[in-house]
């Protein structure tokens, strides 16, 4: 674009780290995977369904609504639970009841607040390497790849090892200091 890269600053989003944080849970033998999105093909809903069929001992929890909602209900898989829409004010409790966030987008997503909130709650991310998602997440808290069922199968057991890194990563990268940086920029432009 002909813009000098030395004069470009990046400003990152933030999450409420007082609300989005890990919670104490009773130990559970079953891994709980979470998917939060509008239930459309482009978000990778079919990948979630295939994973639920391939891994019947894991629990797959889906939050959201959209054209594929009734299809998911019709499947009647014992390890696939569909919650529909959850009010944003209660969403942190859903993250806290799960172990891993699945982010199988088939298109180049924007920033990915869902991934940030999940990491802040202690959930590593297993998902797509498209769009801004890789810029948002480090390999310390995520395993990202081309969104195919084979790649998810290959990495599904590895991602749990990243759980221990999530909260520290969120504190260092998703805090309100990001807001303050942006606010300071706006203030400097007023002068």
From TrEMBL:
MF terms in GO: glycosyltransferase activity
Gene3D superfamilies associated with the record: Glycogen Phosphorylase B
Residues covered by the Glycosyl transferase family domain: 20-168
UniProt xrefs under SUPFAM superfamilies: UDP-Glycosyltransferase/glycogen phosphorylase
Lineage: superkingdom: Bacteria
InterPro entries in UniProt: Glyco_trans_1, Glycosyltransferase_grp1
Protein name from the UniProt record: Glycosyl transferase family 1 domain-containing protein
Organism: Candidatus Shapirobacteria bacterium CG_4_10_14_3_um_filter_35_13
């Amino acid at each position: 674009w002909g813009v000098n890269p030395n004069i470009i600053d990046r400003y990152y989003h933030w999450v409420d780290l007082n609300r989005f944080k890990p919670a104490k849970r009773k130990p559970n033998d079953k891994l709980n995977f979470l998917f939060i999105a509008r239930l459309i093909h482009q978000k990778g809903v079919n990948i979630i369904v295939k994973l639920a069929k391939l891994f019947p001992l894991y629990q797959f929890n889906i939050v959201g609504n959209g054209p594929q909602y009734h299809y998911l209900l019709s499947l009647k898989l014992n390890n696939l639970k569909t919650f529909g829409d959850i009010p944003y004010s209660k969403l942190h409790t859903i993250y806290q009841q799960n172990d891993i966030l699945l982010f199988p987008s088939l298109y180049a997503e924007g920033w990915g607040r869902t991934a940030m909130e999940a990491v802040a709650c202690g959930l590593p991310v297993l998902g797509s390497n498209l769009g801004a998602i890789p810029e948002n997440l480090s390999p310390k808290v995520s395993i990202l790849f081309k969104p195919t069922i084979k790649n998810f199968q290959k990495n599904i057991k590895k991602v749990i090892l990243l759980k221990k890194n999530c909260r520290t990563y969120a504190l260092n990268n998703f805090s309100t200091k990001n807001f303050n940086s942006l606010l300071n920029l706006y203030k400097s432009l007023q002068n």
